[in-house]
Amino acid sequence: MVRTGARANALKGAMIDAGFATADNNPAAPRVESLPRCLAADVMHLYATLGGRDPAPHFRPGTWDLAFEGELLVELDEQLHFNRYRATTLHEDWAMPLPWRDGYLRFCDEREAECLADGRWGKRWSNRSCEVMFGRGDEPGILAGGGSPRWKQRAFYDAVKDAFALTTRSYRVARLSIYDRIGDIELGEALSLGIGLDPEALTSFIWKRSASAPS
Predict the structure, then answer these.
(1) Which of 9, 127, 149, 167 is placed for a possible disulfide with 134 were both Cys, Cβ 3.0 to 4.6 Å?
(2) Are 79 and 115 in contact (CB under 8 A)?
(3) pLDDT digits 0-9 by tens, 94-105
């Protein structure tokens, strides 16, 4: 298994080679309370749909994976991001405009076994902060009933960033998956093996996968 963060660093290098310049600062992660009121309510409804506990704790999505000049934020989603809970977030009506939605739904359906292989143990399955949000889960590897609190938390935080992407006019947000194909190779394979990516194809794909609020 590739060390967490190694592929993100490789992607940063590939993007620099393609002409992108890294930003001096990585913006703070979005917060539910900073979203437009109606969308924040939809996100909280999603939290309940995933089994979120009431009262909800203070949510703390992680920082952005990569930030570049031109106010471009990039998330690289690896195998633990593709499962039934992430699919639930993408089936929300408000998520329909997301440019990565259709591809990600396909990956959630086709690649959940890989998520299970890497995410069925230890803190990848559950931890205290996840259980505060979603309660105790099932035994590792069992997805019926309580399932995996950590998977639910990750899917919910991905959805918070999705909501931000649809409402921000200050940034463009792009999501890339290790399962995406750039030219004739999967992105994750290229990043893991150090295989060069065609700069024009990579740039075109990034802009195709980026979102922001309509002007």
Answers:
(1) 149
(2) yes
(3) 999 999 999 999
